[in-house]
Design goal:
Order of helices and strands: EEEHEEHEEHEEHHHEHEHHHH
Distance between the termini: 56 Å
Bound molecules: ligand LCV
Strand content: 15-25%
Radius of gyration: 18 Å
Shape: globular
Number of helices: 11
Largest sheet: 7 strands, mixed
C-alpha cells in the first residue's frame, strides 16, 4: 500500500511508506530500555504494518543514537520469587512477535545493544550496524537466570565458544567481531547506514511476499526444533527458580539500581 502513515505513539515513532514500515525506538531518557510501554508500542506498530501489507520492517533508534537499547528495564524485573523472564514478560512477547511476523525485519543499529535488546536484535531477520556498535549478553552480570527459549535464540545466532564467552564474561563484543563471526550481516560507516538498509529493504520488497513468509516460518520452526522432554524442562525450570530465589539475584539487581559493583557469593 502507498499509504503514508505515522501512528501517534509516545515512546516509538512508527511510519509506513511504500510498503516499508519503520519503527524508531525513541525513549532516549531511558536509553530505550525495553519497558512495558515501549514494547507495547513496538508490538502495536508491527501489527499495524502487518494489517497494512508492509513487505519489510526496519527497527531502529534515532539517527546518531549512542545506545540502540539498554535492554530489559531492570526496574521492571521482579525482585525475587517470580520468574524474571516468564512467558508474558514484555521482552518475551516482542521477540515472539518479531519471529512470527510474516515479513522480514531489519535491525538497523547505531549505539550499544545490551542484554535482552541483544536477543531482540538477533530475533530480527537481518542486522546492519555501524562500526561503533557493540553487543552484550548480560544476565550473568545481573544474576539473572536467562530463559531456555532465549538461550536457544542466542545459540541460533552464534557458535558454541563465542556464546559461552559472551554469556559468562557479560562483556560487549564489537560489531566488527560480530560480523566476522556471522552474527550480523553488515558493519557500515554511519553515512552508509541508511543506504545499506534501504537497498536491502528494496531488494526484499520486490520479491514474492508469500514465498518469503513461508520460508521465514519454516526457518523459525526448524531453528526451534529441539526435543526437550517435560522432565528435562522441569529440571531446568527448577534450576532457574533456585537462581531467581537466590541472594545473588537480589544483589545483582540492587547493585545495578544503587550503581555499584555487585558482590556475588554463590548463595
Ligand atoms: C533500567 C536503565 C537501564 C536498564 N534498565 O547512562 O539480558 S538480561 O538477563 O541481563 C536482562 C535482564 C537485561 O536486558 O538486563 C538489562 C541489561 N542492560 C545492561 O546491562 C545495560 C545497563 N545500562 C548501562 O550499562 C548504561 O546505562 C549504558 C551503557 C546503557 C548507558 O550509560 P550512560 O552512562 O550513558 P546511565 O548509565 O547514567 O543511564 C541513564 C539512566 O538510565 C538508566 C540508568 O539507571 C540511569 O537511570 P537514572 O537516570 O535513574 O540514574 N538505565 C540504563 N539502562 N537496562 N534503567
Amino acid at each position: 500500500s502507498h499509504c503514508m502513515g505515522v501512528i501517534p505513539m509516545s515512546l516509538v515513532i512508527a511510519e509506513l511508506e511504500d510498503s516499508i514500515g519503520t519503527i524508531t525506538m525513541n525513549h532516549l531518557r531511558k536509553h530505550n530500555a525495553l519497558n512495558e510501554i515501549l514494547i507495547e508500542e513496538i508490538i502495536a506498530a508491527l501489527k499495524h504494518f502487518k494489517k497494512h501489507g508492509a513487505r519489510v520492517v526496519i527497527l531502529r533508534a534515532p539517527p546518531g543514537a549512542k545506545i540502540w537499547s539498554a535492554g530489559h528495564d531492570v526496574k521492571e524485573l521482579p525482585l525475587t520469587r517470580r520468574d524474571p523472564l516468564g512467558w508474558d514478560d514484555p521482552l518475551r512477547m516482542v521477540i515472539r512477535q518479531l519471529e512470527t511476523l510474516p515479513m522480514p525485519v531489519i535491525a538497523m543499529i547505531e549505539g550499544g545493544v545490551w542484554g535482552g535488546a541483544c536477543e531482540m536484535a538477533l530475533a530480527c531477520d537481518m542486522i546492519v550496524a555501524t562500526s561503533d556498535v557493540s553487543f552484550a549478553i548480560t544476565p550473568a552480570k545481573l544474576g539473572v537466570p536467562y530463559n531456555i527459549t532465549g538461550v536457544l535464540n542466542f545459540m541460533n545466532a552464534t557458535s558454541r565458544m563465542i556464546l559461552r564467552e559472551m554469556a559468562f564474561t557479560a562483556q560487549p563484543i564489537s560489531a566488527a567481531r560480530a560480523e566476522r563471526l556471522g552474527m550480523i550481516n553488515y558493519v557500515v560507516e554511519k553515512e552508509e547506514l541508511e543506504q545499506r538498509v534501504h537497498t536491502l529493504a528494496q531488494q526484499i520488497k520486490q520479491n514474492a511476499p508469500l514465498s518469503i513468509s513461508v520460508i521465514k516460518e519454516e526457518l523459525r520452526i526448524m531453528e526451534s526444533a529441539h526435543s526437550v522432554t517435560p522432565r528435562m524442562f522441569e529440571r531446568l525450570q527448577g534450576l532457574r527458580r533456585a537462581v531467581y530465589d537466590s541472594q545473588d539475584y537480589q544483589e545483582g539487581l540492587s547493585a545495578f539500581l544503587e550503581k555499584r559493583k555487585p558482590q556475588f557469593t554463590g548463595e
